[in-house]
Amino acid sequence: MTMRRKTYRTPLKSTIFCAILLMSISTLCTNVRTATAAADDQQRSADAFYKARAYETGENVPQNIEEAIKWYTVSASLGNPEAQFNLGSIYYTGEHGPPNTAEAFKWFLKAAEQGVARAQHIVGVFYSKPIEVEQDYAQALAWYQKAAAQGDVQSQFNIGILHENGRGVEPDLATAFSWYLKSAENGYGPGQFNVALMCAEGDGTETDLLEAYRWMQKASAQGVPDAARNAQVILEMMDPAQYQEAIKQP
After folding, report:
1. 65-92 pLDDT per residue, tens
2. CA nearest to 128, candidates 91, 182, 165, 99
3. Cβ(186)–Cβ(171) under 8 Å?
4. Pick the CATH number of 43-114 from 1.10.3470.10, 1.20.1540.10, 1.25.40.10, 2.170.130.30
5. Please, are residues 105 and 131 in contact by the beta-carbon 8 Å criterion?
6. pTM of the entire structure?
7. What is the DSSP-derived secondary structure letter of residue 171?
8. pLDDT tens column, 14-57
9. Is 80 helix (H, G, I), strand (E, B) or coil?
10. Strand, coil or helix: what is 106?
11. How many Cα atoms occupy the beta-carbon half-sphere of 158 within 13 Å?
C-alpha cells in the first residue's frame, strides 16, 4: 500500500501577518537609523557652528577668519541656517579678503529658503539691485514679502518703494503707503519719513498735516536726514489752528 505524504500549508492570513511584521520591523529599523543619523548630523553641525563662532570672534581661541569659514562651511553644509547666513555675510563683506558676492548669494539663498528673514531680505536686495543675478523685481518682491511677513521693517519699506515706483508691479500709491506705514509703525525711520511726506502731499492717503508732522517728528528723532527741516516746512503749511494743535504734540 502506497502512503501519501501530507502537505501542510501555512494559512494565508498567517503568511500575510508575518510579511507585514517583517516589513514593519524593517521600516522601524530604517527609521531608527535615519533618526540616529539626523541627530548625529545635527550635533556635528552645532559643534562646527560653535567652533566657527569662536574663531570668528576670538572667543577662547586666537581669531582666525579662515578657520571660521572652514567650520561655518561644515555647519552650513549640514543645513544650519544661521551658519549659512553668517557664511554669506563673511563672503559679502570680505572679512577674509576680497568680497565674493557669488558665494555670498549662494549661502544667503540657502538661509532664505530655510526661512531666515534677514537672508530673505538680502536675497530681495540682490534681485532688485541687481547683484550676481539678473534684475528681477518680481523675485525681489516675493522675497521681501516673505521677510516682511516675519516683521522685517526694511523689507516692508522696500515693498513700498516697489509699489510707489511700479517696479515688478503696477504703480499703486495706496499700497505703497500701507507698506511704508507698516515699517513706520514698527519704528523704521525712513518709513516714518515717507509716511509723513505722503500725508503732507495727499499721495496714497488723505492729506493730513498733523499726521505728517507727527511722523516727521518721529523720523527726526531717529536722525533721518532732512526730517527736522521737513517738519518745519510742514508746520509752515498749516493754518493757525493746525499749528497750535501740532506744537502741543509731545
Report:
1. 999 999 999 999 999 999 999 999 999 9
2. 165
3. no
4. 1.25.40.10
5. yes
6. 0.82
7. -
8. 655 555 556 656 555 555 555 565 668 899 999 999 999 999 99
9. coil
10. helix
11. 29
